[in-house]
């Protein structure tokens, strides 16, 4: 909602002063607490452990090894023209070699069950840019996108802030493991209609953030039916597709479209990024893959505002076209994430905490509703505060993800080493013991 | 129901203009000294290709900058994870100092007021989002960079109202032109939020003098609006009178830290001065905390790759390198500029006197068959298809007078530039007879018409 500016001389736009960037939510407040008192094994063993950051730090050694063995990826080799050509390259089509490598990497992640055409790959500076760009293309100011809850807090900014587009939530709950149902979709659509808001599309994250679970094939098929019937778009944000613990458990919307010979596919667009699977958020590499020619052309032109550095395209083209490297990376990364996931689930279970059954991502969806004094958002935030300030763990409260049921928390496990994870689990264990004791005394 | 947004179907991306058509033709039949000597020479691309050897030799001596190392230690992990929209501190520090150096260290820049963006394209659009509502307007002096039509208007919904400049005073901005533009906006019921200037100018290749800068400052102060100074060519000034930045002009009037200085914002980029357009390094500098805060958050949509920030922080912190680069680069630009000017002179073609940029603003009015934009288009096509040179017609830059063209000189070898000059001379020689014959015909005919008709011929 915009704030009215009092003195006219400042003369800034409503967008500039609005709070739609969402930076005042607890999601960011926890981050600040961590910044002020960050955990360090030796220097600050009682500091706040950051478990609110969905980063993948488990496979850097593989990347570092690759760079050691292939220095020409980073330094353009000995050829004079290499640097010059690369430094001048600002074509919004993107480096062809990189698009090819990206398309092939996306195919490998899906076990070859879907094909990707490099000419449909549009490059953007991260998935953040990709999602905003798609919103500009698919909707007009005042229109809406349906987004299933709980969802990534950043969407409030990415999809709404500068675009003027609204989000209408599709409520999901624990009664069926937060799966998206046709009823929930219809209900959301009808709610929008009742408010005279035009729905332009549905945006799903698959695998889901914050649930850490891939969407089932039958649900995806229902979703496709829904969007076709309503004649709206489908954006499938698949940035965690390479973080599925077992390849066979992830079904991409691309596979379903291929299976039906791409019928009605001009409404479907996929977002991908190397920030999660490769652990390279700093390099700003995102992509839009659309089955709609007009969207591809427009997205390409709009990507001028957020191009990927040609230096980075060059590095990653080299890395991702090395299929021996990528095959090994995907397999190893998956395995390590699975192990981390299992150790956190076990640790939490020993502390008496259950999580949603997950099979992907860099986090788990933890159920602390039994601990709530009040089964409300306020109750959840009170609990979150004690966990942040007493247990010294920064985890993300479900309310910041717009979850309609209080008491759920997203806990990241891949942005720290194993020892730190164990320290965190011990703190949780102790906290749960104390809570039990307190409850028994009352 | 219409499936895509209005933005998809409108033409504000500007991709159907001649600016892009010429590019397309060039791509189909690109000149190559050996492989395609009759192909089209690209003179419509404002790139700086003159000083890559300096960059390459620096890279050869500083392998750590690309090898993700710092003092022998690997920092790959740190860089790979760094996505803080405040930007890499060592890079912002180096960039702030580099910008000061370009201005002869007469001004200082605070790294905390610098916002990094993926190129100046992103910076300009971001400032529009921060300073104007959809339907509001910014005033821009003509002629201006064709890309502004897309960058400032497309997704933001902001309008551009031109400040008409003319050759009668070398296209300088005048008070009456500013007032006229403001009134035009009012007539169109558009609220003016600011003025955007490019200094040094694209396509003119000239720097603004203190009179113009003061005029602008007084104007935006009086109207209570913003001033954006796009200074991406500030490092390409190769001749006197030298570059006066907007910051200097404000300081000169003791307005540093004043209310109006809170509404002055600078855009910079490394695409022109360093010749690195592919690396997407742009910046917004503002004294206005709210603008810095909002722009910083918005930069999430177009961050600079941390890999690139690291490389350039090392390069720009090397003061020996940057000072040597600046001097050498300017020397080379001046040489090229002079080559183009004298080559054109030999063909009887004049240029606007310029001291900066990667191009000249060339006066081809005398080659037009009539003083119309139709004739300009005709001439442009002849230059493209007959002479084989892709140059940018003034109309694509919204110039109000037909017959001016922007011709780039820094994106090719010396041999290619010489060759293009030869082609122009040949073309002019071959048409001179035709033109002078036609001219005699026109003069004879005009004597028969009444003076009333002659006046209408503008």
Automatic annotation (TrEMBL), chain A:
The protein's Enzyme Commission number: 4.4.1.14
Swiss-Prot/TrEMBL cofactor(s): pyridoxal 5'-phosphate
Catalytic activity: S-adenosyl-L-methionine = 1-aminocyclopropane-1-carboxylate + S-methyl-5'-thioadenosine + H(+)
UniProt xrefs under InterPro entries: Aminotransferase_I/II_large (IPR004839), Ethylene_sulfur-biosynth (IPR050478), NHTrfase_class1_PyrdxlP-BS (IPR004838), PyrdxlP-dep_Trfase (IPR015424), PyrdxlP-dep_Trfase_major (IPR015421), PyrdxlP-dep_Trfase_small (IPR015422)
Span of domain Aminotransferase class I/classII large: 49-428
Protein's recorded name: 1-aminocyclopropane-1-carboxylate synthase
Pathway given in the UniProt record: Alkene biosynthesis; ethylene biosynthesis via S-adenosyl-L-methionine; ethylene from S-adenosyl-L-methionine: step 1/2
Family: Belongs to the class-I pyridoxal-phosphate-dependent aminotransferase family.
Sorted UniProt keywords: Ethylene biosynthesis, Fruit ripening, Pyridoxal phosphate
Cross-referenced SUPFAM superfamilies: PLP-dependent transferases
From TrEMBL, chain B:
Database matches in SUPFAM superfamilies: PLP-dependent transferases
Protein's pathway: Alkene biosynthesis; ethylene biosynthesis via S-adenosyl-L-methionine; ethylene from S-adenosyl-L-methionine: step 1/2
EC identifiers of the protein: 4.4.1.14
Catalysis: reaction(s): S-adenosyl-L-methionine = 1-aminocyclopropane-1-carboxylate + S-methyl-5'-thioadenosine + H(+)
Cofactor: pyridoxal 5'-phosphate
Alphabetical UniProt keywords: Ethylene biosynthesis, Fruit ripening, Lyase, Pyridoxal phosphate, S-adenosyl-L-methionine
Pfam hit, one: Aminotran_1_2
A biological process term (GO) from this entry: fruit ripening
UniProt KW Transport keyword: no
Domain Aminotransferase class I/classII large: 41-424
Molecular-function GO terms, alphabetical: 1-aminocyclopropane-1-carboxylate synthase activity; pyridoxal phosphate binding; transaminase activity
Family: Belongs to the class-I pyridoxal-phosphate-dependent aminotransferase family.
Protein name per Swiss-Prot or TrEMBL: 1-aminocyclopropane-1-carboxylate synthase
Organism classification: Eukaryota, Viridiplantae, Streptophyta, Embryophyta, Tracheophyta
